[in-house]
Amino acid sequence: MTIKTPDWVKNAVFYQIFPDRFAIGSQTPKGHWQASSLEGWDATPTLQGYKGGNLWGVIEKLDYLKDLGITAIYFTPIFQSASNHRYHTHDYYQIDPMLGGNVAFQALIEAAHQKDIKVILDGVFNHASRGFFFFNDILENGPYSPWLDWFKIHGWPLSAYDGSKPANYEGWLDNRALPVFNHDNEQAREYIMQVGEYWIHQGIDGWRLDVPEEIKTPGFWQEFRTRIKAINPEAYIVGEIWFDASEWLDGTQFDGVMNYMFAVPTIAFVAGDRFRRECSQFHYHPYPGISAEEYASKIKNLLHLYPWEIQLTQLNLLDSHDTARLITSLGGDQKSVELATILLFTFPGAPSIFYGDEVGLIGAKDPDSRRGFPRQEKWDLEVLNYHRKLISLRNQYPALRTGNYQILSAEDSVYVFARSLEQETIIVAINTDSDAQRVNFSTSGLQSTPSHLLYGDAQISWQSVEEQNYLELTIPPQSGLIIG
Amino acid sequence: MTIKTPDWVKNAVFYQIFPDRFAIGSQTPKGHWQASSLEGWDATPTLQGYKGGNLWGVIEKLDYLKDLGITAIYFTPIFQSASNHRYHTHDYYQIDPMLGGNVAFQALIEAAHQKDIKVILDGVFNHASRGFFFFNDILENGPYSPWLDWFKIHGWPLSAYDGSKPANYEGWLDNRALPVFNHDNEQAREYIMQVGEYWIHQGIDGWRLDVPEEIKTPGFWQEFRTRIKAINPEAYIVGEIWFDASEWLDGTQFDGVMNYMFAVPTIAFVAGDRFRRECSQFHYHPYPGISAEEYASKIKNLLHLYPWEIQLTQLNLLDSHDTARLITSLGGDQKSVELATILLFTFPGAPSIFYGDEVGLIGAKDPDSRRGFPRQEKWDLEVLNYHRKLISLRNQYPALRTGNYQILSAEDSVYVFARSLEQETIIVAINTDSDAQRVNFSTSGLQSTPSHLLYGDAQISWQSVEEQNYLELTIPPQSGLIIG
C-alpha cells in the first residue's frame, strides 16, 4: 500500500488556539449571546470559569497570525459545550453560542481561507457530555430511553451528578461528566461518522482526534479516514496519541499524531534537569536530562518508527493545553525554550505553537496553562522575534520542511544535524551547555557545504581532507545555529 | 385599534397530532436514527415510553387527512426533547431526531403546503429542560456559568435529579425537569423571539403557545406578535389559555386561544351528568350537567367575551393531549360525543380534532389519552363517517364558518341556533334527551326558512303566522340536526 498524507501539512506551521482564551471580538453581531458574567481576562484561570473568547476575535487576529507566518490553525473544541474547554460536547452540529455560533464559524472559515490559512477542528468522539441529547434522554427516561445502546449503561438508576452514588454508566476516566459512547453500536458509530463528514463539507481542513486510542471498535478509524478522504483527500487527520502510535500510523487511519514523542526527548536534551517534575503529565515526563548522544538515539528511533510520509505530517509540539507551558515547566529558563523551539521548527512534520507561547505567556498545568492571550504591552518581544525568525526560515527553506534528516554529530551537549532537499542543505546545531563548545566532524553524505549563518551566532569553518569535508563549529553557551 | 386575525383560520379545520403516536413512516432515509427499543404501538402508553411515530409517517398520512377535510395541522411539540411528549425542549432549533430531524420537517412542510394544509407548531417558551444548553451549562458549572440570568436560580448547589434535596431553581409547577426561563433577562427574551421568527421563516403557519399566561414580563407577547406578523401577517398565534383569556385577546397578542371555555359547557350540556369526574383536569370540569337554557347563557357569555374577529379564530376543541378523550370521559356514550362534535363543527372558530377521535380512539387521562393511532381494522367507521360528514358540511357552507350566531331556542334538553352569512342560513338543533322532543319557536331575524336536512333525522315544519315564521322540529332522542 502506498501511504499518502496531505502535502499542505508537510509545509504547514500550525497555531493551536484554545478559543475561550485567545481573543474577544471588538464587535459581535446581533444574535451573539452576551454572557452575564465572565472571569477577568487576566485573572488566573479557574477550572470552570469562562473568559469569553470567541471566533469573531480570532477573525480579527488572522492578520497577526498571517504576519507571524502561520499557515494553519488547530482549534481545541469549538462545538457547543457546557465547559470552558469544550471537551464536553453538548451538540456536535453547533458551534458554541459564546464563540459566535455557526455564523461566526462560517465567517472564520471564509476569512482564514482567503488568507490561505487552513483550519482543523478537535473531534471529541470517545465521549460526549451529560447534556448531549442522546445521553440526556437516558438521564431523563432511564430504561425507557430509546437510545440506551448509544452509551454504556451498567444499571439503574443512573447518578450523573451525585458522586456519592454509583454512576452506573461508563464515564471516561471514571468522570461522570464524560459518558463514553458505545462505538460498537452501529447507530452511534454512524452518527460520529456523519459528524466527521458534515464539518468537512462545511469547509474544515481536517480533524484532530481526541483520545482516539480509547475507541477500540475494529475498523472504526479506518472507516473514518475513508469517509473523510472521500470528501476531501487533502483533509488532515491527526490523532492525540502520546506514545508509540505505530498501530494508528499504518496509512489506513491517521496522517499523524500529536508528536509528544518528539517533545519529550527534545525538552530532556535542551533543559537537562531543569524540568519541574510536578509539570509532567501522562506520557509527558521529560526528565532526567539526556545527552546529545541519547537524544540522537531517541530521534533516530522516532524517525524509524513511522513511514517517512507520515513523519512529514506529524503534528510537532513542545507543549499544549494538556501540559504546563514549557517556559513554566523549565522555571523560566528562556534559553532552553529557545533551543527547543529551534529543534521544533527544524524537525520533519508540522510545528505547532500553543497560542501565547510565541509572546512568552506562562502557565503551570491545566487550568493555568490556558490563560488569556496577553495584551501587547505584556508581550516578550525577544521571544516573539525568535519565533518570527524561525517560522520565517522554515517557510523560506523547503529543506527544513521536507528535506531528509541526517544526524551529523552528537556528543555531550552538542547536537548537529542536516536537512537536505535536492541542492539545498541546512545544518542545525544546538549547544545546551552553559559554556561555549567547539565541535569538529565530517559531513559525509552532504552534497554541499553551507556556511551562511541564518540563525544564531557562531564560528563556522569548513575543511576538506582527502575529499572528506569537515565542519568545525564554535557555538556560544546554550545556543543554537541554523546554517544554510 | 382594528383587530385583525388570519382569514385562513376562520375557514380551517385543524387536526391535532401528538407526533410520537400518529404514524411511523414505512420508509426512513439514511441518517434517521433507529431507536434501539420502543414501546409497542398498541400497548398501553406509559409516562416515559416512546412509540416511535415520526414526521415521515405524517407525510404518508396527508392524503388521509386531506380526504377527511382537514386544512391545518397543529403539532404538539416536535423540537428535540428527551420526553415522548417533547414539552421538555432540549433544542429549539432542531426537530427531534426520532421524528426525522429537520430534513423530515422540511419534507413535511413542503408536502403539506402542496396539499393546502397549514402547519402550526407548539412553542414551549415558559420553560426548557435540564438538557437545554443554557440551563445545562448552569448544572455543569454552577455559579461559574455565564448564563445564570437565563433561569431563576435561588441558591447552590442545584439538585436537578435528586428530589431529596432542594432544587434551588424554579421549575414549572415545581417540576425540576422544567426549568423556567427568566423572561426578564433581555438575552433569554431575545433568544425566544428569534426561535419564534426562525420557524416562521422555515415555513410554519403559526404558533400554538404553551402556558403563555405564565410569562408575565410586560410586553413579551406583544413583541412576539409584532415580530411574527412582520414576517408573515397571516401567521396564526394561539395561546393555551383554559380560562377567560380577555387579557390576551385584545388584538395585540394572540389571535385566539384553545377554546376549553367552549368545550366545558358543550360537554356539560350534551352529556348531562355522564362526565366522569376523575376525567376532569385543571379548568376542564364539565359537570354537573346543564340545561339548554344554561348552555345558551354560557355560549352568549363566551361570544361576548372577545371581539368577533377573535371568535372566528379561536381554536375550538372537545379534548386534547391534556385531557382524557371525550368518549372515555363519557363512559363510552357515543351519542353524546356525536352531539358535542356537531356543536364543535358548527361553532365560530376553527374546530380541532385530537388525532384518533375521528375513528373512536379511547383513552383516559395522560398518558392513556396518547395511544397509538389505531390500525384501520380497529376504526369505528360510524364515528369516522359522522366526522367526515360534519367536516364536509363545514367546508361546504361558509355560514358555518363565518356566519353570525343566533340562538333560536333553548329549553330543557333542546338547543337550536342559526349561523347566517349573507343569503345562507344554517340551523342546528340538538336534543340531549333520551326521548324524542318536539319544539316550536319563532325565527324572527332569520332571512330564510331553510328546510333541507343536511344532517340527522327529523320532522321539519315551517309555519307563518302574522308575518312571523315559526319552525317546528321533532328531534329523535339524543340526536342533532343541521338544516340548510
TrEMBL record, chains A, B:
Name of this protein: Pullulanase
EC code(s) of this entry: 3.2.1.41
GO biological process, one term: carbohydrate metabolic process
SUPFAM superfamilies (alphabetical): (Trans)glycosidases (SSF51445), Glycosyl hydrolase domain (SSF51011)
CDD domains named in the record: AmyAc_CMD
Record domain Glycosyl hydrolase family 13 catalytic: where: 16-394
Name of the top EC class for this enzyme: hydrolase
MF (Gene Ontology): pullulanase activity
Keywords: Glycosidase, Hydrolase
Origin species: Stanieria cyanosphaera (strain ATCC 29371 / PCC 7437)
Highest taxon of the lineage: Bacteria
